[in-house]
Amino acid sequence: MGSGFIVGVLGVSILAHAAYSTVQYRGLLKIMEDEFSNPPMNVVIELLLGLVLCMWAALTVPGKFLSIHPDSEENRMVSLPGNLDFMIFNHRAKVFRSEIDMKLKL
Amino acid sequence: MVTKTEETQLNRLENQVDNGGGGAWEYLCLVKKLKVRRPDKVLRHGLSILNDPKKRSALGPDVWTLYEQVSIAAMDCQCLDVAKDCIKVLQKQFPESKRVGRLEGILLEAKGLWAEAEKAYSSLLEDNPLDPVLHKRRVAIAKAQGNFPTAIEWLNKYLETFMADHDAWRELAEIYVSLQMYKQAAFCYEELILSQPTVPLYHLAYADVSASSIGVITIARLMRNFHLYSGFCGRDTVLYTLGGVENTLLAKKYYASTIDLTGGKNTKALFGICLCSSAIAQLTKGRNKEDKESPELQSLAAAALEKDYKQRAPAKLPLLTSALKSLKTS
C-alpha cells in the first residue's frame, strides 16, 4: 500500500510536470512565432512514464482483485440455503428430544 | 447461496465454537447470513449468550434478533418452553409488533395446532395482506399436514403476486419432485435458471428432473447411495421412449453446464454425464449415429471422476471403476 501510493503520487506529479512543460512550450512557440508541429520529446516521455506509473498504482493501491469465475472457490456454490421461510416442524426432533436442557433465564 | 469459502469458514467456526474456542456470536451471525439450518447448535450457543448478562448487554440492540433466532431454533428442536420464554421477552419489548405475532403463529405450528396457527396468520394478514412471510407460512402449514395439493394451490397463488421470489419457486419445485410430477418441477427449475443463471445447483436439479421424468430415475437413486452401489447395468429400459432420448440429451446438456459452472468439482454432475451418455448410447443403438455429439464427454467425465476418487476416497476406487466399466460395455 505504502510504496504503491508513493508511486501513484510520483506518477501524478510527472503528469503535472508534463502539463506545465506543455504550457511553457506553447509560450515559447508564441514568442518565437513558430508553427506547432509536434510536442517536444521530454513531454512525450514524461506522459508515457506518468501513464505507466499511474496505471500501476491504480491497480495495486485499491486492494486485491476478486475472482469473477463462477468456478473459483469464492464463487462456487456448494449448497443452497435451507428454505427457512417454509420450514416445518414435524420431523424427528419430536421423537428424539435434544439433550440440551438449558432454560432461558428471565 | 453458500459458496465454498463460506462453507469452510462456517465449518471452521463451528468446530471452534463446539470445542469452546469462543466466537459464538460470529458463528450465529454466519448461520443467519447463510440461512443454514443448525437448530441444535444455534439453541445451545445462543442460549449461552442470552443467559450471560454481560455478553447479552454487549450485543446492544442485536440481542432482539438473537432472541428471534434462538426461539425459532428452539421450536425446531421442540424445546417449546424455551421458545415461549424467548417470545415472551420479545413481546414485552415490542408489544404491538407484527414480527412477534408471526413468531407466535410459528409457535402454534410447532405445537401442531394447525387451525389456531391458520387463524393467527389470517388475522395478521388482514392488517397486512402483502406480507410474503405470512403467505409462505400458510403454505408450510398445508405442507406440514401432508396436504400437498393445497400447498401447491397456495404457492401458485402466491407466485402470481410475487413472481420474483425464487425461494418460493424452489419450494414449489421440490414439492413437485416429491410428488413425482417432474414436468411441473422442470417448469419451476426453468424459471429458477432464468432468474439466476449462474447457480449451478439449479442446472443440476433441472438435469436430474429431466432425467428422472423419463425413467432414468435410477440416476437420482444412484446419486444418493453411489458408494453402496456396485453394478449399474443400465438394463432397465422401462420407460425409455423416443421422447426419452430428447430428455436425456437435455439432461446431459445441463449436467455439462453444471460442470462448466463448478469447474468440474461436482461429483453428481460427472456421474450424470456418464449415466446419460450410456443411456443415450443404448437408446440410439442401431439407429443412425449422425447426431452423436461430443463422444469424448463420457470418457472425460469418467477420467475426472477417477481422479477425484483417487484423491479423496482411494478405498472406493475399485467400486467406481467397475461401475464405470459396466456403464461403458452395456
UniProtKB/TrEMBL annotation, chain A:
How does the record classify its membrane topology?
A: Multi-pass membrane protein
Identify the GO cellular component terms for this protein: early endosome; EMC complex; Golgi apparatus; plasma membrane
Coarse class of the primary localization is endoplasmic reticulum
UniProt keyword terms in alphabetical order? Endoplasmic reticulum, Membrane, Transmembrane, Transmembrane helix
- InterPro entries per the record? MMgT (IPR018937)
User: Cross-referenced Pfam families, in alphabetical order?
Assistant: MMgT (PF10270)
PANTHER family (alphabetical) = ER MEMBRANE PROTEIN COMPLEX SUBUNIT 5, PTHR21181
What family classification does the UniProt entry report for this protein? Belongs to the membrane magnesium transporter (TC 1.A.67) family.
Q: What is this protein called?
A: Membrane magnesium transporter
Organism field: Citrus x changshan-huyou
From TrEMBL, chain B:
Q: Which UniProt keywords apply?
A: Endoplasmic reticulum, Membrane, Repeat, TPR repeat
Q: Which residues form a coiled coil?
A: none
The protein's predominant localisation is endoplasmic reticulum
Q: Which Pfam families match?
A: TPR_EMC2 (PF22890)
Protein topology in the membrane: Peripheral membrane protein
Instruction: State its location(s).
Output: Endoplasmic reticulum membrane
Where in the numbering of this chain does the EMC2 TPR-like domain appear? 100-211
- List the GO terms this entry assigns under cellular component, sorted alphabetically: EMC complex
UniProt entry tagged with the keyword Hydrolase: no
- Tell me which family the UniProt entry assigns to this protein: Belongs to the EMC2 family.
- Complex formation: Component of the ER membrane protein complex (EMC).
The role this protein plays is: Part of the endoplasmic reticulum membrane protein complex (EMC) that enables the energy-independent insertion into endoplasmic reticulum membranes of newly synthesized membrane proteins.
Q: What is this protein called?
A: ER membrane protein complex subunit 2
Please tell me the species this chain comes from.
Answer: Citrus x changshan-huyou
The root-end lineage is: Eukaryota, Viridiplantae, Streptophyta, Embryophyta, Tracheophyta
